[in-house]
């Protein structure tokens, strides 16, 4: 069975997706303020490596842990509504690239899996049946 990375189209597809994604993010007034003054070339490279790693591709991500890397944004007011906007932009990007809904949902699940770390809060315990 192919990994999500392979189903998405590997490095070329993730490269295109990240470029389109950041165009959407920078145009989105709900979240673009968090990217003011950011070196977007560097940001895109980190995002491409991170997405490759979390979707089952090469694991050469060397960025900060999600909690540490976003703490300064949490201090500026980053909250669930902003994470939702990021995930919406990511889903819209993948739809634009013809990715199927099941794989879009899988990418969304990966994004949601780091939500608590990004927002600097304790992870919710999973209920056990």
Commentary on this structure:
The two termini are about 30 Å apart. This protein has one domain: Globins (Globin-like), CATH 1.10.490.10. With about 130 residues, the chain is mainly α. The mean pLDDT is about 90. The chain has seven helices and no strands.
Indicate the topology.
Blueprint: H1 4-8, H2 10-27, H3 40-54, H4 66-75, H5 80-96, H6 101-113, H7 115-118
Please give the number of β-strands. Answer: 0
CATH fold label: Globin-like
Structural class by secondary-structure content: mainly alpha
Can you tell me the CATH architecture? Answer: Orthogonal Bundle
Ends distance: 29 Å
- The radius of gyration over CA amounts to 15 Å
Number of helix segments? 7
CATH class: Mainly Alpha
Sheet-strand content, in percent, reads under 5%
- Contiguous low-pLDDT stretches (5 residues minimum) are none
What's a quick, concise take on this entry?
This protein has one domain (4-118): Globins (Globin-like). 64% of the residues lie in helices and 0% in strands. The protein has helices at 4-8, 10-27, 40-54, 66-75, 80-96, 101-113, 115-118.
For the structure shown, list the relevant keywords.
129 residues; single chain; mainly alpha
